[in-house]
Amino acid sequence: MGGRADYEERKQRRIARYKAVSQKAKKEAEARSNSTANRILMMTPGQPIIIGHHSERKARKLHRQAEYDIRKSIELSDKSDYYEAKARHVENSNAIYNDDPKAIEKLKEKLERLENERNSIKARPHETWELTNVTGNIRETKLRIKRLEEQEQLVFPDIKFKGGKAIHNKEINRIQLIFDEKPNEEIRNKLKRNGFHWSRNEGAWKENLIKKLYG
Prior knowledge:
Layout lengths: L6 H27 L2 H8 L12 H37 L10 H20 L5 H26 L5 E3 L2 E6 L4 E6 L5 H9 L3 E3 L4 E5 H6 L1
Antiparallel strand pairs: 1-2, 2-3, 3-5, 4-5
């Protein structure tokens, strides 16, 4: 079975992270909306600033703080909505990711649906674009299945090089470069240009195998 062994766990962590950010932003938005400055102004609606009075400076500062709190409340509310929507998208998405251990199975089911759709289109009067679109989706789905099946058969031995080693980590579906010491800036920049990313948790520079083979 291909894909990452921890795919579902990582998906649930991502959903939980988005929801946590959304809830935090929502609470901060409510706090800004109910700030001391806003409460005072709501208690004294229409109270003008008396020019030249000893209270003028304090009143202007209060209004500035209230305006700032309102702007921040709106920004934080938008942020909360954004991350709540991201969490829903991950939960409800029908997208099939290469890291999913069931990706091949799901893609074959998708392919069957697409082929049935193509047959239905052919059996009735149709626009040219309808058949073109579904045929393109079928071709792309077949290609993804082929690549994932090829990937499952791949086995790379560890390769040692001066200062480290390269390994094929099938558990996380990644190529990893592990250095004995932190590489210098020039090497780090070359790694980044070639699609590698540093993972603190894994202590390695890594790249998606599919991207590296077919990118």
